[in-house]
Each structure stands twice: as C-alpha cells, then as structure tokens.
Amino acid sequence: MHMERRAAIALGILLVCCRSASALNPSLDINQYAHTAWTVRDGFFKGQITSIAQTPDGYLWLGTEFGLLRFDGVQSVPWTPPAGERLPGNNVSRLLVGRDGRLWIGTRAGLASWKDGHLTQYPELAGYSVMAAMEDHQGTTWVGAFALPSGRLCAIRNDKVQCFGQDGRFGSIVSSLCEYKGEVWVGAETGLWRWKPDAETLYPISDPTHEILALIEGDNGVLWLSTRGGIEQMVDGKVQPYPLRAGMPLVPRKLLRDREGGLWIGTPGQGVLHVHQGRTDVFTAADGLSGDRIESLFEDREGNIWVAGLDGLDRFRNFAIPTISAKQGLSDNEIDSVLAGRDGSVWGAAANGLNRLREGRITIYRKRDGLPLDGTHSLFEDDRSRIWVSTLRGLANFEDGRFAPVGSVPSRMVHNIVQESAGDLWINDQDQGLFHLLGEKVVERIPWPKLGHEDVATALVPDPARGGLWLGFYKGGVAYYKDGQVRERYGKADGLGEGWVTDLQIRPDGVLWAATQGGLSRIKGGRVATLTSKNGLPCDIVNWTLEDNERSLWLHMPCGLARIAGSDLDAWSTDPKHMIRTTVFDSLDGVRSQWTSGGFSPHAAKSVDGRLWFATVDGVSVIDPRHLPVNKLPPPVHIEHITADGKTYWQNLWGDASPKLRLPPRIRDLEIDYTALSLVVREKVRFKYKLEGRDGEWHEVGNRRQAVYNDLPPRNYRFRVAACNNSGVWNETGASLDFSIDPAYYQTIWFKTSCAAAFLTLLWALYRYRLHQISREFNVRLEERVNERTRIARSLHDTLLQSFHSLMFRTQAARNLLPRRPDEAGESLDGVIAAAEQAIDEDRSAIQDLRSKAADQVDITESLTVMGQELANSQKVETNRAAFHITVEGERHTLSPILQDEVYRIAREVLRNAFQHAHATRIEAEIRYDDRLFRLRIRDDGKGIDSRVLKDGKRAGHWGLPGIRERAKRIGAQLNLWSEVGAGTEVEISAPASLAYAQSRGSRRFTLFRKKTGTHAH
C-alpha cells in the first residue's frame, strides 16, 4: 500500500495566485509569505517597539521605550514635537490613528494627540500609563490606563474627556478594549466589562488570576479573550476556555484579525502564531523572526502584517508566486520535475519520494509503494493517463493506484519521456541513447553518434503535425528525426541560440520554441530567429518555456520569470527587430533564480485549470496567469528634507507643507530626499523627478530616493517628484517643494547692471584711447614720411641740381672745343652723357624710396636677396660688378611689421651705397636670430669711409648716414659702423627680441634677430 500523508493544506493553496495585493492569502502558512526583518542589533531601532499605527499619509509610526519613530519602510526617523511642545513621556506604550487622521500617542506618563501640526495633551490622564486605545463607530476614542490604586477608562469626544474607574471598579489597570456588536467591552484587572453608561456589566473570567491581555471578535461572531492562561471565549454570557492547539502551552499576549479572517497571535516568548482555515503554524526566531517576544501586531493599508517586539520589526507580505515546500508536506524541498495530470493532480519528483497534490492533500510515494527507488526524476503521462516515473534504477508507471516497474528499459538517467502516437513512446537516456518503445517493449535503441552528435540530447518533443521528433542537445543544436534519419539540423550558424538546449516546446501552428543559453529561438519553415536581450528580454539564458491559455509565453530565466504577451511575440515574429515588452517576476516576487533548472523534465506544467506549476530548489511554485496580483493603491509621495552643503534647511518632520524656502547664496551641493509610502515591495518602488527652473524633462531614477544638484544659479525653483508602487501604479500628482536660492552680491541685478555700465565705460575709454593711439601713430608715420621726403628732396637737390650744373659746364667746355678739337669735344660729350645717366639713376632710386612696396609684406631675407640682385644687375660694367651673398643663422621668426620695414629701409640704403659708391668686389649680409637679440650685419671690401665722416656722422650735402641713424633710433635699435679707408665697411643693426619679434611662445624668451651689413656711406 502506498503511504498517504494528509498534510493540512487547504484547497486554497492551489488557488494562491488568485489573491490581490490588498491582503495576505489566508490559505498560506507564515513561511510561504515574504518576510523582512529590521532588527535592533543591526541598528535600525533603539529599544523595543511596543505599538504600531499608520497615518493617512502612509507613514508607519512606531512607539518605543525611547520615543516615537516615523518609518517609511526604508528608514526610521525619531519624531520630536515642535519647539515649545512635548509629549507626556518618552516611553510610548500605545498608538492609535482615528478616522479623522489624528494620531493618539499614549505613554507611560499620559496621553497626547497630534493633528494638523498641533500637539494636544489631556490633563485627565496625566501620570497614567496608557495601556489600550480604540475608536468606536460613533467616533468616540476610548482609552484604558494603569495607575495605583485604580486604573481609568476615559471617553474622548469633541475634545471633551470623561473618565471612569475612580471608584476602583476596574482595579489598577484597564488593559484592553474592543467594540463588539456595537458595544464597548473592557478588559480589566477585575474581569470583563460590557460598558454602557449607567448600565455596565461585569463578567468574571474562568480563572481570576489570569489577566486579560487582548479582546477581539473571534470565529462565529463570538468574543475572544487572550489571557495568561490562553484564549477564552464569551458564550451565552459565560467566559469559557477556547482550545487553540492541543498540547501547546500558550500565552496569547497580542491578537490581530487580518482582513481575510486570519488570526495572528503574538506571544511573550514563542514567536508569532497564524491560525487560518483550521491550521495553526508558528514562526519563531529560528525561522528568521527578529525575536520571539512580541509586543504589537498591525495590518497596514496594503495588507502587510507587521510584527514588533523586543528585538525588532518584521513584515509579512504576499509573494506574487508562492511556493509549496516541505513545511507544507512535500517529501523534499528540491523538486526535479513537475507534471500536471489530466485528473487535476500535480506531481512533483524529488530525491525523497514522488509527491502528488490533489484536492488539498499531499500524498508521498516511495519504494515501499512500488517505485524502483525513492529518488524520482523525470515524469510523463501517456494517452492512457498512466504516470511514467524515472529513477536511477529504472522506470515505473502508475495506474489504478499502483506502480508497476518497466523492466525492458535499462535506463538510469532519463531526461525526457514523450509519446509520438498511441502506444509509441520515446525515452532519451543520457548514457545509452534514444529508446523507442511500443507498449512497454523496446523496439529500437539509437546511440547518440548515429544522430550525428557526440553529446547527449537534453530536450525532446514530438511533432504532432509532421510526426517524428525534435531533439535539443547539450552542446548546442537542434535536430529533426523521422523514419530512422535526421532530416533537419539547426545550429548557431543558422541563427539558433548558442549553448545548451534545455527545453523544447511546439505550438499547434508548428512553431518550435527552443530554450538555449543564448536566447529563445523560434523555428518554423526552415527559418530560425532568436530572441535575446537585444530585443527586450531581461537576460539571455532561458531555462524553459510554457504557453498559458491566453497565448502568452512564460520564460524561466536566471533573472526571473518573464511573461511575453502573444501579440508581442507575433509582432516580433513578423519583424525580428521589434522590441518586445516583458513582465518580470523575480526573487522579490517569490521566484527563486537559477542558472539552470536541471536536466530532468518536465520543468514546468500547466494544470487543467490554467495554472502554471514549476519545479524549484525550494519546492513547487505556482501562478495563475488570469489573476496576476496587482497592488492598486498608488503610493503617497513625500519630500523628506532638503540639504545644502551639508546643512539641513528644511525637514518634513511634522507633515506640514513647507512655505517657500529661501536658501543662502553660493549653494554648491543641493540634496533633496524624498520617499513613497508603498510598503509591499519597497525595492520595486520607482521614482521620477523634475526641477522646474532647471530640468526640461523628467528624470527616471529607478529606486533612488535622493536628487542631487550642483551649482544651481540663484532663482525660484519647484521640485516635483512622482512614484509608482510595485505593480507600476503611479501617483502622478506626487509631491512638490518650492524654494529659491538668494543671489550673492555679485549675482544681483544692481551689481550686474553696475558691471555692465563699468564695462561699457571701459569700452568707451578703450575706444577713445585707440583713437588717440591711431592718431598718434598717424602723426608719427606722417612725420616719418615728411622727414623721408625732406631727405629725398635734399638728396635730389644735391644730386640732380649739382649734376645739371656740372653738365652745363662740361657741355659748354665741349662746345668750346668742338670747332678746334673735335675729338676731345666728342670724348667730353660722352662723359657728359655718362654723367647724365648716373644722375638719372640716382634720382630714380630716390623716387623709388617714395613708391617702394612695404617691406613687411615678405620675409626680410627674401626682401634683401631681391634688392641685392637688383643692385648688382644695375651695375653697368660687367667686370666691375660686385658679388652679393646673404646668410641666415638660428631659427627664423616673424619680425614686427614696423621694425621690419625700418630695418629693410636701413639695409637698402647701406646696400645701395655699397653697390654704387664703395667700388666693392664682394658684399655680404648676415642675419642672425637669437634668444636675446635680432641682428643684421652688412659688410663690403670697398674703399671704406673717411674717419672724419664716421666721426661727424655726415658729409656736407649728403644725408645717408644721418638717415639710417635716425631710423635705428626711432625703432629702438642699436646701429654700429666700422670702416677704414681702403679696408671696407661693416654696419650692424640689432634690436631686443621683445621689440623685434611679432609673437612670443608661452614662457620661452623672445628670439633675437641680428643683421650685419657692410657698405660704404656717402
């Protein structure tokens, strides 16, 4: 006989996916919920948490022994009243939020309430320790308190307080309150009271020593009491024990009914208990609870359950995809394969038995029930509804409640069992190849090399339309096998995803989906296309695929369980460049991420009711695609505080809207912290923000809860932030904060206006100065030209006039000789003609001085070379023509235009005198570029200059030497002459680099130019 384990798993476990995010699924155990703990030892809180409440703005308020905390699901902030106000005491014992949003704060020293930025104290309870608080259906707030010798019960309505118990009727404490059937019930030291003014009734409890700890409406509409002796109930006016769990001593310190009817019990040392649908399960510190001593239980507006105690705070919430594990009755947590039977059963193969889930019951089959071995791997259901099971010691099938071994198949590591037609099965064994069975007899065994592969097939699926089999291989590639031969092959070169083919699924329309390590490949009609992260998948590795009843495709991947709508897949099939949209469920939704789902099959299955089941290392997970969980509550959004350069300028500590905030000048680093009060999956809350006055578009920042800006200019700003919850429901209104940054004095309008005026004034002054400079330069140039023309006029006067006087005398002498001595007269006339030509040349040169091209238009070396060639060619006698040579030393630089022009004119004067008057045979010019000086030297081997002329600087009636000295002096250059009669002449002109060169290069010193000329001056 098989072993049947009746685990108390309600049918609701099979319906877990139908729940929304508004409440916890009552059919689940605590360990099937998502659990998060914030512990005192990790520094999240200080001291034990005694009470929890939630205000309409979404914040959780935590009462501790050291004060009041405000919690947004990420961090807690100590709350202090505004200046001049204070709580009755720091040890907060009880919190309550009224329908009007008022936060009631009970302490060990009195009662206060907080609303609209005002803190109200109640002197009637000053010095009393508040132990209980509730609001009835009429809006009256009831408060129970402890004091010696007598406790108090107070009713507060419209700011009026009426207290009872001064006569000692309640003893020293009113410990609990409850509204039951429209009446107020009070748990006190003296017993249970039904409270009506002037008509109160006392009901003694079964054991007078048992203090009433909590009151709550129980099952079947009865009133439950938690006492130190356990849970008791009010039946027919009598308080009777209520057996919760046989054999388990229990002190139910705190009670909570969630909105789905589940009962939560907090104990002083046994953790938290969950009573639901006839089942009681326990969650303690050994399971991950922050601590076993429970002080408070609370359900928030999104259906999360909060458990607070001595050691921290715990939250329980629904998983979108819950898991059934060994704690619910499975033989093992690690499931190798899962199969959905036609009868509604779900089978799970594990190393410690075969599990069957049916009608809210788990049955476990092992070797004693007919299996070859306890460890089971791959599963299959044939057309006769027989369940085939593989083990390491062979196959067995299950029919009519019994297992029968299949001895004809000597297989050990079976990856797949499939059926091609009635009675026609194929089994792929890792070691031995492909087995073909008719009935239960092996009719064919095909080794892997015969299929053209050295590796093994890890995926197998029959083609119902064409017949034959599709095989996927461990090292990659897909093959179509029919009638004893491989008819089609596809690999990476054909566009198939690379690597291990872990799963094959074929659709009714003939489309084959291949799950590979390189993406999801689609094969149809010989065409292969692969869907990867480039097309919108969350990652590339695909473990398995499964299509639901809505034609959506589900993909199990290392990054989660992804859903792709059928319409989106069709669009991608038409256009491989189409970007698909996916809905991803990850570990935060209950999906255990795995690199691979293992080598056994099926990896996942769709049951007859449309639910999807898949094997994990934690058990069997299930999801209903028709009822995906949705959190429909948009999250309240708040701006927490604004900090600039490390200083906090505003903090939303009291929930008030900030007036327009003014920040000081020169703000560099501005930080704005914000939050959204969706407490289900805080990691999936997404934000976007915009700073009006700075940002043109919204910034999508994911889960980041801080905006940072640097060097904002002074102006008015509005910061806006919006957020969505874990289901993508947005609160588009969000929150906003207006602030401004004051300008520094140099950023004010008057300062900028003054600067602009000063700048314009400076421009005008520069303009006037430039006009003055141009005028002065014009006058200088004009004076230079006038002086030049005066010099030329003098030269013309000296040369032309004297030449013509001489010509006249010589012509007259020739005239006088003509009758008497014709030959001598002819020679005299030839001399006159030569002298006239010489005078013409001298005068032409003087005129060229006035009309010559500016020397600064070309390089000085080129200018002097051209001029030397022209002067040499102008000599009449070829044999007396002087040789001219020019040399350059150092790196060439561009000269200042004015200096270059003057140097050129000095050199031209010197060279003309050398060529025309010195009777030189060799004339040399040397240009030297130096780091300190520019130097030009000209020398000749002519007849030289008389020492008196050099000393005086001029010769009567001649202006050559004075002219070049005047030019050198004007440009700040130094002129040196050396000459002796018969030994030639040398002229050198030099100028500092700072004057000579047109530009300097960085920090280098100015290059120097030096020119040397040798000439004869007259």
Topology at a glance:
Blueprint: E1 34-39, E2 49-54, E3 60-64, E4 67-71, E5 76-79, E6 92-97, E7 103-107, E8 110-115, E9 118-121, E10 129-135, E11 141-146, E12 152-157, E13 160-164, E14 174-180, E15 183-188, E16 191-195, E17 201-203, E18 212-217, E19 223-227, E20 230-235, E21 238-241, E22 254-257, E23 263-266, E24 272-276, E25 279-283, E26 294-299, E27 305-309, E28 312-317, E29 323-324, E30 335-340, E31 346-350, E32 353-358, E33 361-365, E34 379-381, E35 387-391, E36 394-399, E37 402-406, E38 414-421, E39 424-429, E40 433-438, E41 441-446, E42 457-462, E43 469-473, E44 478-482, E45 485-490, E46 501-506, E47 512-516, E48 519-524, E49 527-531, E50 544-547, E51 553-557, E52 560-564, H1 566-574, E53 582-585, E54 604-606, E55 612-616, E56 619-623, E57 637-644, E58 647-651, E59 661-663, E60 669-676, E61 686-692, E62 699-702, E63 706-710, E64 716-724, E65 730-741, H2 749-817, H3 822-851, H4 860-873, E66 883-889, H5 897-917, E67 922-930, E68 933-940, H6 947-952, H7 960-970, E69 974-979, E70 985-992, H8 993-996, E71 1008-1013
Parallel strand pairs: 59-65, 66-67, 68-71
Antiparallel strand pairs: 1-28, 2-3, 3-4, 4-5, 6-7, 7-8, 8-9, 10-11, 11-12, 12-13, 14-15, 15-16, 16-17, 18-19, 19-20, 20-21, 22-23, 23-24, 24-25, 26-27, 27-28, 29-56, 30-31, 31-32, 32-33, 34-35, 35-36, 36-37, 38-39, 39-40, 40-41, 42-43, 43-44, 44-45, 46-47, 47-48, 48-49, 50-51, 51-52, 52-53, ...
